[in-house]
Design a protein that fits this description.
Two copies of one chain form a homodimer. With 122 residues, chain A is an alpha+beta fold. Chain A has one domain: Orthogonal Bundle (Arc Repressor Mutant, subunit A). Helix content of chain A is 65%, strand content 16%. Chain A has four helices and three strands; from the N terminus they run αβααββα. The first copy, chain A, is flat and about 55 Å long. Chain A starts with a helix and ends in a 5-residue tail after the last helix. At the A-B interface, α1, α2 and α4 of A face α1, α2 and α4 of B.
Chain lengths: 122, 122
Amino acid sequence: MDGQDEAVVRKFQKELNGGTVSLVLLAILDRSPEPLYGYEIAKRIGGALAAETPVKQGTLYPVLRSMESSELLTSRVEPSVSGPPRKYYSITDRGRTALVEWKATWTRTRDFVDATLEGNVG
Amino acid sequence: MDGQDEAVVRKFQKELNGGTVSLVLLAILDRSPEPLYGYEIAKRIGGALAAETPVKQGTLYPVLRSMESSELLTSRVEPSVSGPPRKYYSITDRGRTALVEWKATWTRTRDFVDATLEGNVG
């Protein structure tokens, strides 16, 4: 691959992450019994998949803020014994409703893409 | 769901389509023995899945143009017996290289999202 090929692949990964990062974040917060701060979420994603993960830590923060402004998440800031205060996120009722719908949307889109790649569409 | 919930679901579908529509288009053109024009591509996608398809026809045209300017597709305009001239698209060598990489990126991202939703991450 030359530089232009690599740029095309990076652009595709970025576009794909546009939807999937929100879904993954919401699923992780839905399953967590307690609120989580950004670095904990990044660690859970990264820890499970190491270099395999398509999600970079820097992409999480703007998504968390956007989901909070859509009222899918709520946050509270708490002091930390070892550094600056931390912002802890929890899923809201609206977030749980969205997660149910997003899962259905994800499954439909995933099956559609897989069917196309397997040659059953087109 | 209220209006705000519906907007949140629409936004998610749109973000998800950001990456998947390019992949689906490229796969369909890769498999086609002859160049296809926009409406034919839309029909192949829509025909297979009817109301199920998450891809609306209007979203195809800007993606086709963007992929042509990235040199993944090439096009030629031909007169039509039954109406205005049509723009026929074919995949380029660069497009075939991108498709191989995009499929790998898609599989990795899909498996990652599925693992998260099944509770194996987080």
